[in-house]
Design goal:
The chain is of the alpha/beta class. It has one domain: TIM Barrel. The chain is built from 9 helices and 12 strands. Strands 1-2-3-4-7-8-9-12 form an 8-stranded parallel β-barrel, surrounded by 5 helices. A two-stranded antiparallel sheet has the order 5-6. β5 and β6 form a beta hairpin. α1 runs parallel beside α2, α4 crosses α5 and α8 runs parallel beside α9. It is globular, with a radius of gyration of 18 Å. 41% of the residues are buried.
Amino acid sequence: MNTPSLIVPQSIPATAGVGLKPQHFDTIIESSPNVGWFEIHAENYMGGGARHQYLTKIRDNYPLSLHGVGLSLGSANGLCEQHLNALKGLVDRYQPGLVSEHLSWSRYHTRVLNDLLPVPYTEESLAVFVRNIDHCQNVLQRQILIENPSSYFELAEADYDEAEFLVNVAKRSGCKILLDVNNVYVSACNHHFDAEQYIASIPPELVSEIHLAGHSLQAIADLGPVRIDDHGSKTCNEVWRLYQLTLNHVGPQPTLIEWDTNVPLWPVLQQEADKAQQYLTDLLREQHHG
């Protein structure tokens, strides 16, 4: 279902970026921090308001990525055309280097849920994702990226494991993969699978972006300790180690620091971005001398 005319942007280099938050608008505009790019949640900019004035100024100086959370690509009844058209309006306006969404669903007909809900990894679900991604890419005239989820329970019915399902979605739809290393680690701990094997099973040529974030460990009744992907802290050492393994496997990729809750002052995010950038710089140096 590939569409040959799709635009495959190349405007975001293999550098470290940061999720853009309103509390940092002024700092970014006034000080032009040393980060490679910024990513926004598309839904936060589908209306009007002052946010667009700030975003326009920031977009003048930095590459931009749009990361959607509400398109519901796993919805069996298809995509919401109003939402898709609003996303297209943002894409046309800001010309982002990357556009991404999630391997999830959040809408049934007119009922919208404020969660990224899991899908069964079946042939039927695979066909739904491929159909919806194909439609999305045709409307946007852009290749999009799909992010692997963090998960807290597993559905009994499955024809594939998660990595196999994700790879098949990408291959059959012509999209690429946004590989969230923290999500791999969280799900691996919750479900006791091998995170390194998951990473190794993803073909490098399918990966076009990486996410890093923090998570929390919470006690859930009847389940015991569960890792929750809350994006509210620094990336832990185990995820940094998995990031290093990921880079060795897929090569240098645009890497985003996500921090969506308990958002810190800018210098903390700058430190996280600098750390990711050092991993990328070291790998590029090794490749150059190798």
